[in-house]
Design goal:
By secondary structure, this protein is an alpha/beta fold. The protein has 2 domains: about 190 residues, Rossmann fold (3-Layer(aba) Sandwich), CATH 3.40.50; about 130 residues, CBS-domain (Roll). Strands 6-7-8-3-9-10 form a 6-stranded mixed β-sheet, with helices on both faces. Strand 11, helix 13 and strand 12 form a beta-alpha-beta unit. One of its GO terms (molecular function) is ATP binding. Belongs to the ABC transporter superfamily. This is Glycine betaine/L-proline ABC transporter ATP-binding protein. Keywords: Amino-acid transport, ATP-binding, CBS domain, Nucleotide-binding, Transport.
Length: about 450
């Protein structure tokens, strides 16, 4: 693999963009600590000392309020605005300071852009708009039209190719803009407030479609937005800008749970956490867990130690097989049967570690046990008690509190009796308290 293939998809080093006179002097003053608002009159620092890398195949979101410098930054990334100072690399190749013809070639072949207000050619049909980047490359008419039709189908606009942009809704026009960028087949897509002009419902639909396309195509996307919920929903990583500077870069979880300063903390306080945090963010160590070969005695001990009425059963590779409850395990012991298979029950609910909390409420309510979290191979990687799910959304009970189960667990005394074990003095005292609390319900 070459150095360029090992390089990030995009790299920015110490970028400055100054508008006005004596721009290099302004850069030096900013580097020495002069505040942005103390520069000479008529001099505006739009981007100040911005450095970051965008990994191949990720959605990197740059977000901030109006005037934060995010739109200026994205125009620097494809050379629409010349940098005042700093360096930009695309796939390891420097694009700052190159000749105009070289810059045009990079924009044509390696970087596409989707604009906020669509920027479609009004006199061209939808399919001709999508095919336009290929036309600029000199691709044959038949080939570019075939590619355009293929991409239109991908974005849900099959059959609309012969319409004019004016005949389409705003959401459909933005799909054409995305299709045009995809038809260019560049490594990098720059999206500048691409969905902000759309109605909320259409906007959400477009966000979901972008993620679906990304799962299939694995493009490198730099997405600009002022909407934090949109940033959290789309971004693999997020760069937060304020007054021309990047103040924090991190995953949505990093930004939400560990804000770098008061500004970011205030920014994220109204975020819909249920749409950002995932099962993997809040899951706890799975317990009680027993292997299928462990037998009912081992299962009953694990349940006793965890004060639970059921245990998860896994195979040797920790793939989740099902659950057993304490009463069925006790019956197996009394029958003299040392296997768990006859009493194994299906797991009521299991979820993926990537599922957002919003999608876990219904499964959690319907399940009598904490939700089991499994990976792609079905391995048990964690559990989410209902109280943990609620605590993750804001102030409330501790996430480690015991979840109340519909059927109380057997008392320690009952379990010890069946296992033929003698509790310690401390254990006897605890068993007596637990037995007093549960005897009337269990008997």
């Amino acid at each position: 693999m070459t150095d360029n293939e090992n390089a990030p998809a995009l790299r920015a080093r110490n970028l400055f963009k100054i508008f006005g006179k004596r721009t290099q002097d302004a850069v030096e003053r900013l580097r020495s600590g002069t505040p942005r608002d103390e520069l000479d009159p008529g001099t505006t620092a739009a981007v100040i000392d911005a450095s970051f890398e965008v990994r191949r195949g990720e959605i990197f979101v740059v977000m901030g309020l109006s005037g934060s410098g995010k739109s200026t930054l994205i125009r620097m990334l494809n050379g629409l605005l010349e940098t005042t100072s700093g360096e930009i690399e695309v796939g390891g190749d420097e694009i700052t300071g190159v000749t105009p013809s070289r810059l045009r070639a990079i924009r044509r072949d390696r970087v596409s852009m989707v604009f906020q207000h669509f920027a479609l050619l009004p006199h061209r049909t939808v399919v001709a708009n999508v095919a336009y980047p290929l036309e600029l490359r000199g691709t044959s008419s038949a080939e570019r039209m075939a590619k355009a039709e293929e991409v239109l189908d991908m974005v849900g606009l099959a059959g609309w190719g012969d319409k004019l942009p004016s005949e389409l809704s705003g959401g459909m026009q933005q799909r054409v803009g995305i299709a045009r960028a995809l038809a260019a087949d560049t490594d990098i897509l720059l999206m500048d407030e691409a969905f902000s002009a759309l109605d909320p419902l259409i906007r959400r639909e477009m966000q979901e479609q972008l993620l679906e396309l990304q799962r299939k195509l694995r493009k490198t996307i730099v997405f600009i937005t002022h909407d934090l919920n949109e940033a959290m929903f789309l971004g693999d990583r997020i760069a937060v800008m304020r007054d021309g500077r990047i103040v924090q870069i991190g995953t949505p979880e990093d930004i939400l749970t560990d804000p770098a300063n008061d500004y970011v903390e205030q920014f994220v306080q109204d975020v819909d956490r249920a749409r950002v945090l995932t099962a993997g963010n809040v899951m706890e160590r799975p317990r009680p867990v027993v292997t299928e070969s462990g037998g009912p005695r081992r299962a009953l001990r694990e349940m006793r130690d965890a004060y639970s009425s059921a245990a998860y059963v896994v195979d040797r590779d920790r793939r989740l097989l099902g659950i057993v409850n304490d009463r069925d395990a006790m019956k197996q012991i009394r029958k003299g049967d040392n296997t768990l298979t006859p009493i194994l029950k299906p797991v009521p609910q299991s979820v993926s570690r990537d599922d957002v909390l919003m999608d876990l409420f219904v499964p959690s309510v319907e399940s009598q046990l904490p939700l089991a979290v499994t990976d792609e191979q079905g391995h048990l990687v964690g559990i989410i008690p209902r109280i943990t799910l609620l605590a993750a959304l804001g102030p409330g009970p501790s996430a480690t509190e015991e979840m109340t189960l519909p059927v109380p667990p057997l008392s320690s005394a009952e379990i010890d009796e069946v296992l033929g074990e003698t509790a310690t003095a401390a254990g006897d005292a605890h068993a007596a308290v637990l037995n007093d609390a549960t005897e009337g319900e269990v008997r």
